[in-house]
Amino acid sequence: MSVCVQPVQLPDGDRTWTVLGADHRQVGPVEEFLEYHRVTGSSPHTVRAYAKALQLWWRYLELDGRDWAGADVPALAGFVTWLRQGIPPGVALLDPAAAPRRLAESTLATRLAAVVSFYRYHHDAHGVAPALARAWSGPPRRSRYRAFLAHLDGRSRASRREACPLLTPGQVAAILSGCAARDAASGEWSGSLRDRLLFATLG
Asked: What is the residue-wise DSSP string for the chain?
C-alpha cells in the first residue's frame, strides 16, 4: 500500500504515529493535524485512530484521483461507500463473494468523524474545504454508539409489520437535490450538506 501508518518513538520514550506517503515522507497536512492533537494533549490511542482513518482517506483520494484540498461532500460519501464495501472507486466485482470483509458501522463512524475533524482543523487554520468542515454538525455524543439503522434491528422488527418501501434511483436523486444542491456557476452549495451526506451514506 502506497500510504501507511508508521509508529514513531519519541525522545522521551513515548510512542506516537504518523502517516507516510508513497515517497516515504510524512504526509504534511496529516502530520500537522496529528501534531496539533499531540500538543493539545490527545491520547496516543486517539492519535493512532486519527492516523489510521486519514491513511485510509489518503488511499481513497489516491485511488479516486482527487486532491485532498479539493475534496467535496460527494467524495466523502464515496469514501463511506468504499469503507462499507471494500471496493475501490470505479471497480465492479464479478464475484460478490470475493468482496473484503466489511467494517462494523461503529468503526466506519469513527473513521468518518476523524476525516471531518481533520477538515474542520484545516478550515479553521487555513480556510481549506469549507463544505467538508461543515459536513457533520453537532458535538460528539457521549451515549453508546447506535448504527444508522439500529431501529430496524431484530428487537424492534417484530413490532413493524409493514415492509420498508424501496426508493428508485430517481427518488434518491430527488431527495439528495432537495437536501443540498450546488450552483453550477459559482460552485457554492446551498441547503443542508449534513442531510445530503446522511442520505448518501444510507444508499
From this structure: --SEEEEEE-TTS-EEEEEE-TTSSB-HHHHHHHHHHHHTT--HHHHHHHHHHHHHHHHHHHHHT--GGG--HHHHHHHHHHHHH---TT---SSGGGSPPPPPHHHHHHHHHHHHHHHHHHHHHH---HHHHTSS-SPPP-SPP--TTGGGSHHHHTT--SPPPPPPHHHHHHHHHHHEEE-TTT--EEE-HHHHHHHHHH-
pLDDT confidence band for 172 (50 / 70 / 90): confident
Mean pLDDT of 84-104: 61
Neighbours of 150 (CB within 10 A): 11
Q: Is the pLDDT of residue 139 over 70?
A: no
Q: How far apart are CA 18 and CA 201, in angstroms?
A: 28
**For the chain, how many structural domains are there in total?**
1
Instruction: Name beta bridge partners: 19.
Output: 5
- Range of the structural domain that residue 86 is part of: 4-139+146-202
In whole angstroms, how large is the CA radius of gyration of the chain? 19
**pTM exceeding the 0.90 threshold for the entire prediction:** no
**Contact (CB, 8 A) for 86 and 26:** no
pLDDT digits (tens, 9 = 90+) for 76-88: 988 998 888 876 6
